[in-house]
Automatic annotation (TrEMBL):
This is ABC transporter G family member 20. The chain crosses the membrane at residues 12-32, 73-94. Keywords: Membrane, Transmembrane, Transmembrane helix. InterPro entries: ABC2_TM (IPR013525). GO terms for cellular component: membrane. It is a multi-pass membrane protein. GO terms for molecular function: ABC-type transporter activity. It is found in: Membrane. The keyword Protease does not apply. It comes from the Eukaryota. Residues 1-61 form the ABC-2 type transporter transmembrane domain. The gene is abcG20_0.
Length: 98
């Protein structure tokens, strides 16, 4: 939604989305563990939206944690912290784009 609010061409939007998806996937700890990354990449990975959400999913699926565990709320709150500003910024861009 955010990318489509910035660019006009569908192909450019797809390239930007794929170009940001794979580094996000690699640095968020889904494919390679964050603990095995160099120090500067661990700091960068915790700024990405998927890192805490991936840890939350890993805790739910492999450790059997429930919604009442404290570590689960980090992922949910991080998702909300990314969703609302991105929707707000996208709506502002769409409004000025017209």
């Amino acid at each position: 939604l955010f990318i489509s609010s910035i660019v006009n061409d569908e192909n450019i939007a797809m390239m930007i989305a794929m170009g940001s998806f794979y580094p996000n996937l690699l640095l968020s700890g889904i494919i390679w563990p964050v603990e095995a990354m160099p120090y500067y990449l661990t700091k960068l990975s915790y700024c990405l939206p998927l890192t805490l959400m991936a840890n939350t999913m890993r805790s739910i699926l492999s450790r059997g944690w429930t919604i009442s565990d404290n570590g689960i709320w980090d992922g949910y709150l991080m998702a909300l912290a990314w969703i609302f500003p991105v929707i707000l910024i996208s709506s502002i861009f769409f409004r000025f784009k017209k």
